[in-house]
Design goal:
heterodimer, A: 120 residues, alpha/beta, 5 strands, 19% strand, B: mainly alpha, 5 helices
Chain lengths: 120, 157
């Protein structure tokens, strides 16, 4: 079981990601944007962070960049989960330090399998 | 007759008001549909929790599969909200800056409408709209899918 932080500005998406990951036995916290995610991540250490890209206040790519600056998140898997799928945006995510890029809509079983893979 | 014509609001003002009204209606509809989507997600969560104590078996697997289908399908609601948000933002910009030559919105064909938008919207709006259309498959160029990842794909760096 892992502690996972799911970040998305959409309430229904947060719920679906939480539902999918909880069904795999993971403990899931949620945040509504990059700013809140940073606050939550400073209060608690997570094993994986899954974030949307387009969010108000702080987007997912900025969040990944900020998390990578913190020593306790330097090697933590950070996954982007987004409708964005252009090579350019993906490259931006990669340069910011993302571990992987998942395109919505996700399949719950596949999401669990990807989380297991990055955790191993 | 001349006085009546003079009293009519100019076309750009009418379109500006229409755009503002459209933006408000969209916002209202989006907000209204958010709560039911969240409630549906909660119901799915309760179903999933109800399945946990059950032993593995065909029925449990089948129900888990159905929940997974719902999870996947419900994400299209989120996508619709994103698309509507972009359109709402475009309407808002139009109402803030009504343009004098918006008669092209009376276009009869989709291609005409796109051409009118391309011509009249500012560069940023234009890019945003076309990115949205391409992303959601509205205007795909055949054989140009190389740079795009299919839905549900994953790439680990």
């Amino acid at each position: 079981m892992a502690r996972i932080l799911a970040v998305d500005d959409s309430p229904s998406m947060r719920q679906l990601v939480k539902l999918a990951l909880s069904s795999g036995g993971h403990e899931v916290d949620v945040a509504t944007d990059g700013v809140e995610a940073l606050q939550v991540a400073e209060q608690r250490q997570f094993d994986v962070v899954i974030t949307d890209v387009n969010m108000p206040n702080m987007d997912g790519i900025s969040l990944v960049r900020e998390l990578r600056r913190r020593t306790n998140y330097r090697f933590v898997p950070l996954l982007m989960l987004t409708t964005e799928s252009t090579a350019e945006r993906k490259q931006q995510g990669k340069e910011a330090g993302a571990t992987g890029w998942l395109v919505k809509p996700f399949d719950p079983a596949r999401l669990l399998s990807i989380v297991s893979k990055v955790l191993s | 007759m001349g006085a009546a014509v003079a009293a009519l609001p100019c076309r750009c003002e009418t379109l500006g008001v229409s755009a503002e009204a459209a933006a408000i209606l969209l916002s209202f509809a989006m907000r209204e549909s958010e709560a039911p989507a969240v409630e549906l997600g909660r119901a799915l969560e309760r179903l999933a929790q109800g399945l946990r104590p059950l032993e593995g078996g065909i029925v449990r697997e089948a129900l888990a599969g159905e929940i997974a289908t719902c999870v996947r399908a419900l994400q299209f609601h989120d996508r619709l909200m994103q698309q509507l948000a972009v359109i709402r933002n475009l309407f808002t910009r139009m109402s803030d800056h009504p343009l004098p030559q918006m008669a092209g919105f009376g276009a009869q064909r989709w291609e005409e409408l796109l051409a009118a938008l391309r011509e009249r919207l500012e560069a940023g709006s234009h890019d945003e709209l076309f990115e949205l259309l391409v992303r959601t498959g509205g205007v795909g160029v055949p054989g140009d899918g190389g740079a795009e990842q299919p839905e549900g794909s994953c790439e680990l760096f």
